[in-house]
Amino acid sequence: MTHVIAQPCINVKDKACVDVCPVDCIHGKDTDPQLYINPNDCIDCTLCVDACPVNAIFAEEDLPVGWKNFTQVNRDYYSKS
């Protein structure tokens, strides 16, 4: 299991989650529409969940049905890097 950043982050990109991540697994460029969690580095500490002001971060299995595609969106971001 990993955590996933979903639709509420789009065009918001509040970086409070980045500041609390102990393994530095949340990234996104200024030109990206959202931030992304690296599924290979996430340790499921949940600190980012509490820090997110727009409730955009979910455990993979808890993603709302309409946002399930964001699991792949986050993975794809890191496969391009």
Annotation keywords:
81 residues; alpha+beta; two-stranded antiparallel ribbon; 3 helices; 26% helix; globular
Explain how this protein is built.
- With about 80 residues, this protein is α+β, with helices and mostly antiparallel strands.
- The protein is about 25% helix and about 10% strand.
- The chain contains 3 helices and 4 strands; from the N terminus they run E-H-E-E-H-E-H.
- It has helices at about 15-20, 45-50, 70-80, and strands at about 5, 25, 35, 55-60.
- The strands form 2 sheets. It has a two-stranded antiparallel sheet. The protein has a two-stranded antiparallel sheet with strand order 2-3.
- A hairpin with an 8-residue loop joins strand 2 (about 25) and strand 3.
- The model has no long low-confidence stretch (mean pLDDT about 95).
Helical/strand content category? alpha+beta
The pLDDT mean sits at 96
- Continuous helix count: 3
Oligomeric grouping of the chains: single chain
| Helical residue percent band | 25-40%
| Total E-strand runs | 4
Radius of gyration: 11 Å
Largest sheet features = 2 strands, antiparallel
Distance between the termini: 21 Å
Strand content: 5-15%
Topology:
Elements: E1 3-5, H1 16-20, E2 26-27, E3 36-37, H2 47-51, E4 57-59, H3 70-80
Antiparallel strand pairs: 1-4, 2-3
Précis, in short:
This protein is α+β, with helices and mostly antiparallel strands and 81 residues long. It has helices at 16-20, 47-51, 70-80, and strands at residues 3-5, 26-27, 36-37, 57-59.
